[in-house]
Write a structure and sequence with these properties.
There is one protein chain. The chain is mainly beta. It folds into four domains: 68 residues, Immunoglobulins (Immunoglobulin-like), CATH 2.60.40; 85 residues, Immunoglobulin-like, CATH 2.60.40; 66 residues, no CATH class; 178 residues, Jelly Rolls. The chain has three helices and 31 strands. Strands 18, 20, 21, 23, 26, 27, 28 and 31 form an eight-stranded antiparallel sheet that branches. It is elongated, with a radius of gyration of 54 Å.
């Protein structure tokens, strides 16, 4: 309680009384009949002589409403005025259920084996009864000890020397120690097993991490595959359009190859191979009649199983379906074999998704058996077609055949075994031509369209196909 004394003497002619003022707070300003008589500070009791009779006493504190009391001061007497604290008491209540959460203790066990058997054991921080501290059997143990390192003291009851060592208690495990009091050695019996478990846990964690990496890598590869196939399909759809500008096709092709980190000049088509994009195909060296730079396209059939066509090669004429088209192997060499039967042809086509260059050189090794064999090259608008008979090949042997095709100049020239034998003018690439079934895409077409008189089976064989830009 804070008390401040202050005296303001009235006129001597008045009837006088005294007011004593007390407050529970300090820093309170006191006014009597509207006149300030000071602040309640640290001084104690505040008294004031006033005229006897009625007075209005007011207590003010910053931030609170004033407290006012009307008092009557008796003549030649004291009137006590008290003001309670301006800060009201708060009301505290509780409801609901009361629960006490106890954190589960992290406990382990301790086992001690000694030589000799009889001894007294004490463990730091554990209140072990004296009778229980005496060990008279082989193994002595304590269960449910809080984990951590505790100092163990062993004193022999008969012979030997005292031993003191630190025992580490592990959660959910039993720590085992063998103590020889004769030479004062301590052996951690559970250490090897504990280390084995730790190594096993590390190995399991590493395996889980590696598996997670494999899963993440598989997801990444799958996302890349989907991205590639979506983009490549959009590219194919665009370039198949007849009115799609050549410059835009080339730009899109280069952009695709850059995105998937392949050489845009290394082939003509892209495909997904296990975990990355590869380009097809440029398997042969850049040599051959009139060759300049890398091969625009190359196929030697080495990677195709016997009896099957290479990928992206289409059967375009198969008569009644009893013809044969597929790769064969002779003396370690793979080649494409096309067999017609009776009066039915056997023709296949290799289409390109990128444009033919304006001037190309086509080269291959070829031979014809019992029939007329066809070789044709087109850029989607113009083409040239020629048979081996037209080139003067009438035996059954292999020959080197090449054609220099100038799509811009509308001309073509053919050579056999390095000697020019024929010149042709290009014709319009007819999508409905009887033997070629061109379509409207850049392509090469090869096959056995018809037989020689009287021959039931006839075939065409071709190998080492290459197309070079000039």
């Amino acid at each position: 309680m804070w008390l401040i004394a202050c005296c303001l003497l009235p006129d001597a002619s008045w009837a006088v009384g005294t007011i004593e003022i007390q407050t529970e707070d300090k820093g309170v300003e006191i006014l009597v009949d509207g006149t300030s008589i000071g602040l309640v500070a640290d001084a104690g009791t505040l008294t004031k002589d006033v005229s006897a009779g009625q007075h209005k006493v007011e207590a003010r504190k910053s931030g609170f409403r004033s407290a006012v009391q009307d008092v009557t001061v008796p003549e030649n007497d004291i009137r006590l005025v008290k003001f309670a604290s301006f800060v009201p008491p708060v009301k505290v209540g509780q409801q609901g259920e009361s629960t006490t959460e106890v954190a589960p203790a992290r406990l382990g066990n301790l086992m001690i084996r000694t030589i000799p058997v009889e001894c007294r054991i004490t463990v730091e921080g554990l209140n072990i009864p004296e009778k229980d501290s005496e060990k008279r059997m082989t193994d002595w143990f304590i269960k449910d000890i809080p984990i951590g390192i505790r100092q163990v003291t062993i004193v022999p009851l008969r012979t030997g020397s005292s031993v003191r060592f630190d025992a580490e208690i592990f959660e959910g495990e039993e720590s085992q120690y063998r103590v020889d009091l004769r030479d004062r050695t301590v052996q951690d019996l559970a250490k090897q097993e504990r280390e084995r478990r730790m190594e096993a846990a590390k190995a399991a964690a590493l395996a889980a991490e590696q598996e997670q990496r494999k899963v993440s890598e598989a997801k990444r590869i799958e996302q890349s595959r989907i991205e590639f196939e979506t983009g490549y399909e959009a590219y194919l759809k665009a370039v198949r359009s007849n009115d799609f500008p050549l410059q835009e096709r080339v730009r899109m092709w280069k952009a695709l190859c850059t995105r998937w980190q392949v050489d845009p000049g290394g082939g003509t088509e892209l495909r997904w191979n296990t975990d990355r994009v590869v380009i097809r195909s440029n398997e042969l060296p850049d040599t051959g009649p009139g060759a300049v730079g890398n091969a625009y396209f190359a196929e030697n059939f080495e990677n195709c199983p016997d009896g099957r066509l290479p990928p992206e090669w289409l059967i375009v004429y198969n008569g009644q379906g009893n013809q044969e088209q597929g790769v064969r192997t002779a003396n370690g060499n793979h080649y494409l074999r096309l067999v017609g039967k009776v009066n039915w042809s056997s023709v296949v086509r290799k289409e390109f998704v990128v444009p033919m260059l304006p001037r190309i050189v086509f080269s291959a090794r070829a031979r014809s058996l019992n029939g007329t064999s066809l070789i044709a090259v087109g850029d989607g608008r113009k083409c040239v077609c020629c048979s081996l008979l037209d080139l003067g090949i009438r035996d059954n042997g292999w020959h080197a055949v090449s054609a220099t095709v100038d799509f811009k100049g509308n001309s073509a020239s053919f050579s056999v075994d390095g000697k020019q034998v024929r010149r042709d003018v290009l014709t319009t690439q007819d999508p409905n031509a009887e033997w070629t079934v061109w379509g409207n895409k850049p392509a090469i077409v090869v096959g056995a369209p018809w037989n020689k008189e009287g021959q039931a089976n006839f075939e065409f064989q071709i190998d080492d196909i290459r197309i070079f830009g000039q």
